[in-house]
Design brief:
Chain lengths: 326, 511
């Protein structure tokens, strides 16, 4: 029993990282922008939050957790949205190829993040790990509900970003399904010429969706740094791996952020299962870690076979729009 | 100027690169009228109207709406001015419902009240006599339903000026009639309706006034009651043309294709053709009539080897030497080599047959490269075919190296049909060869087909316009729901008779 709870807890923590990534990417892709820069944006969000918290903690005499949280949140959002803005400018205004731009952004983001991650370690004296313990504790603070035995342990023992991820995913889903602006945004992603003819500002919608989406994705990186690794940094590429999983989750959830919630936890369970399955060797352990991708492929196969139109990607995903094109 | 003017356009110019699409156009749209905007392909009708709809912005010139000068920079500006356009290629989001498409981009409460929206839509439908289900998804709709959604969309936005770009190109005669009655009730409601078309009998049937464009220039306007199709054609083309299709008697008829009990199912297992049997002869044009989607496409594709026929189907082809080949089981390439050519013009014109990003020469090469022996493609032959097609069919293009997508629709079709003819086939199948083409180009194509027929080619012509089928074809095969409803003699058949057989197997109701 404790093992199962431990697995689920690990899955939820893991899932939260990719849920942020996927929710942001769903919002972005619904506008027709295929931003493969998610891992890079998560990197940017993570490192910016860490840098912000680091400078706050090293300059303040007596750092407060909530100020650290606020500073790192703002830095993280700003950096991630800046990443989204770069992508938007290149693909929307200059109509550069989306795949190339996105992949470049991933390389750029991981480079920037690992460069500053290394610099921070140097600034901190160059010995071992840097740590922003105060800020991180602010992120990991739990309410009294966490003490409610098994239930509390399973449901209430996480930092606030875990719940924020769920709220944002539901909010994005509601926005897309039930509001006028959401309908307009989906129209932009499905058929920009139609949206344009209906008087919708295609460029504005794409910019907003991409930048806000990037901001949400960036929170995944922040959560990873502050909560998952408890305020430390390592140049091991794990954010990038999670970023690609987030992109896979978008497909798995069939571009519906409410479905991404349980999808992300399922990915978490599949990912951590190897710890709890007895008798795994080094080789079969790696096979086990592949499960989230295998499941995504299976979902893709099932979805393409069922051919339900609503489950397909936005029709103009990956295409630039130019009104006077003939 | 006339005070009764909803829109006045003065001295409008618009160029695309080298091409002058509109050259100093002056025209007006009056209140409560149905105006036909007539012109050949590439004469700038759609471009002109797109400038009213905010899709393009004029290079220079002025636009006045209700006497006030306006600048229409985007579709939103047009909507705000009460101008709505139904484009030839529908601008609808497939995965949305009718209601969602209609409300798209409209201001209002943050939350979408779907119930109230449906009520509003039904109210508009009742007022003008539409028939629509607001909750139906676009991808489940027929072409005519989609068009209805487009029109309601424009009306829902409170448009007082409606522009319909070739609305009847994809409709059946019955649907067209229904559309016309809707247009008339809109006119009675005080709205101005502009219909872009090149079907003369529709101009005569529905409009109050006709404005004619030719090569981007405004030729003039006439009251419909005071004009005739002949005069309009002259205005459009700039010279007198004969509106009769020359139909010489077939001579030396030879059996070319004999279809026996052809049955075809589509991928979903739905029966598209059932026990179709007929014979096509060299030296005659066999017309195929039917409501859209009743198996014409499948029939031609089965002959060309693109559709799998069911067990028991036979297609016998007799070649020039009198040898008989069974076509079923052969690949499209083998069938083509035997001399059977298919030119199919789909609804979007480019989808099948031509690659839009490739130039004319390369599109010719698509058909000829397999004949080359070496490793490298031979471009000399396709280039000579391309220049032949361009000069003989009078294709308007800056050059042979222009990507096909930059040509206007009519010129694209000339390239497509011309390429098939250049293969010198013994059987030439064309589907919707004149879809969306203006009169002059259509007649060029009819003449080409007749010419092929006189050369002894078996021509199979699938068409939408019954008048043309009756004038062009020697025999007419009528399909109804995938079955042969009857085969008529083209010279004695009547439009009503064919129409009945299209909707009722054998046209029994007549007897």
């Amino acid at each position: 029993m404790t093992q199962i709870i431990a697995l689920f807890s690990a899955a939820i923590v893991f899932g939260t990282v990719i849920l942020f990534g996927a929710t942001g990417e769903i919002l972005t892709e619904k506008s027709g922008n295929l931003n493969l820069g998610v891992p890079g944006i998560m990197y940017l969000g993570g490192i910016a939050g860490l840098v912000g918290a680091f400078f706050y903690e090293s300059s303040a005499a007596d750092p407060l957790p909530w100020v650290g949280v606020a500073v790192s949140l703002i830095c993280s959002l700003a950096a991630a949205m800046l990443g989204g803005l770069i992508y938007s400018f290149l693909t929307i205004t200059l109509r550069a190829n989306q795949n190339v731009t996105g992949l470049t952004l991933t390389i750029f983001g991981s480079g920037v993040a690992n460069f500053f991650g290394g610099s921070l370690q140097k600034l901190a004296g160059g010995v071992g790990q840097i740590s922003v313990a105060t800020t991180s504790s602010g992120y990991r603070e739990v309410t009294g509900l966490a003490d409610l035995g098994t239930v509390g342990n399973l449901l209430f023992s996480y930092g606030f970003l875990t719940y924020a991820a769920i709220v944002i995913a539901i909010a994005v889903s509601y926005f897309l399904k039930h509001t006028r602006s959401g309908l307009n945004l989906r129209a932009v992603g499905e058929n920009p010429a139609t949206a344009d003819a209906a008087g919708i500002n295609v460029t504005k919608n794409k910019y907003l969706a991409t930048c806000i989406g990037a901001g949400i994705s960036g929170l995944g990186g922040l959560y990873f740094v502050m909560d998952y690794t408890e305020g430390t940094w390592s140049n091991d590429g794990s954010i990038e791996r999670l970023g690609w999983l987030a992109v896979a989750l978008v497909i798995f959830a069939m571009w519906k952020s409410d479905k991404a919630i349980w999808g992300s936890y399922l990915f978490g369970v599949l990912f951590w299962m190897f710890l709890y399955l007895p008798g795994l060797t080094r080789a079969s352990l790696e096979l086990c870690k592949m499960l989230p991708y295998v499941v995504t492929i299976i979902v893709l196969i099932v979805v393409s076979m069922r051919k339900k139109r609503e489950n397909q990607p936005p029709a103009s995903l990956g295409l630039a729009y130019f009104r006077e094109e003939r | 100027m006339n005070t009764n003017c909803a829109v006045r356009m003065e001295n409008i110019n618009k160029t695309f690169g080298e091409v002058r699409a509109n050259d100093g156009v002056n025209m007006e749209i009056r209140h409560g009228e149905i105006l036909s905007l007539l012109g050949e392909n590439g004469s700038g009708k759609t471009t002109l109207m797109n400038m009213l709809a905010g899709i393009y912005f004029p290079d220079d010139g002025q636009i006045f709406v209700e006497g006030r000068e306006v600048f229409i920079r985007s579709p939103k500006d047009a909507i705000d001015l009460g101008i709505g356009m139904v484009h030839q290629h529908f601008k609808l989001v497939d995965v949305f419902t009718a209601a969602e498409n209609i409300v798209l981009g409209m201001p209002g409460k943050v939350q979408l009240d779907r119930k109230q929206l449906s009520a509003e839509i039904l109210e508009i439908s009742e007022k003008y006599g539409f028939d629509i289900d607001p909750d139906k998804k676009i991808y489940d709709m027929s072409v005519s339903e989609k068009q209805t959604v487009e029109i309601i969309k424009v009306l829902y936005r409170g448009a007082r000026i409606l522009i319909l770009d070739e609305p009847t190109a994809v409709l059946t005669p019955q649907e067209t009639e229904k559309l016309f009655s809707v247009m008339r009730s809109m006119k009675e409601d005080g709205k101005s309706v502009v219909i872009i078309t090149h079907k003369l009998h529709e101009v005569m049937a529905v409009s109050d006034r006709v404005a004619v464009l030719r090569k981007g220039e405004y030729i003039g306007d006439v009251a419909t009651s005071g004009t005739s199709p002949l005069q309009l054609t002259e205005m459009m083309v700039g010279k007198a043309v004969s509106l009769n299709i020359d139909r010489p008697e077939p001579k030396d008829r030879v059996e070319r294709i004999s279809v026996q009990n052809l049955s075809v199912r589509d991928v979903e297992g739905i029966r598209k053709l059932q026990d179709v049997s007929f014979t096509a002869y060299g030296g005659e044009i066999l017309g195929i009539a039917g409501i859209s989607g009743c198996g014409q496409k499948e029939l031609l594709e089965a002959i060309a080897g693109l559709q799998r026929a069911e067990h028991g189907s036979h297609i016998a082809y007799t070649d020039k030497n009198g040898e008989v080949h069974e076509l079923i089981g052969k690949t499209p390439l083998e069938i083509e080599k035997l001399g059977v050519a298919l030119s199919f013009v789909p609804e979007d014109r480019l989808g099948m047959g031509l690659v839009s990003d490739m130039d004319i020469t390369d599109n010719m090469l698509l058909r000829s490269y397999q004949r080359g022996r070496g490793f490298f493609a031979n471009r000399r032959y396709p280039r000579s075919v391309a220049s032949e097609v361009v000069s003989e069919l009078d294709v308007a293009t800056p050059g042979l190296n222009t990507p096909v997508r930059e040509l206007s629709g009519g010129n694209v079709q000339k390239v497509l049909v011309g390429r098939e003819i250049a293969l010198h086939p013994t059987v030439l199948m064309t589907a919707y060869a004149v879809r969306g083409l203006d009169i002059n180009t259509s007649y060029t194509i009819y003449n080409l087909l007749t010419e092929q027929k006189m050369k002894g080619v078996a021509v199979i012509y699938v068409g939408e316009d019954l008048d043309v089928l009756l004038e062009l074809c020697d025999r007419i095969l009528v399909l109804c729901g995938g079955q042969v409803s009857g085969i008529l003699d083209g010279r004695s058949a009547t439009k009503e008779g064919v129409g009945l057989m299209m909707t009722q197997l054998g046209g029994d109701i007549h007897e």
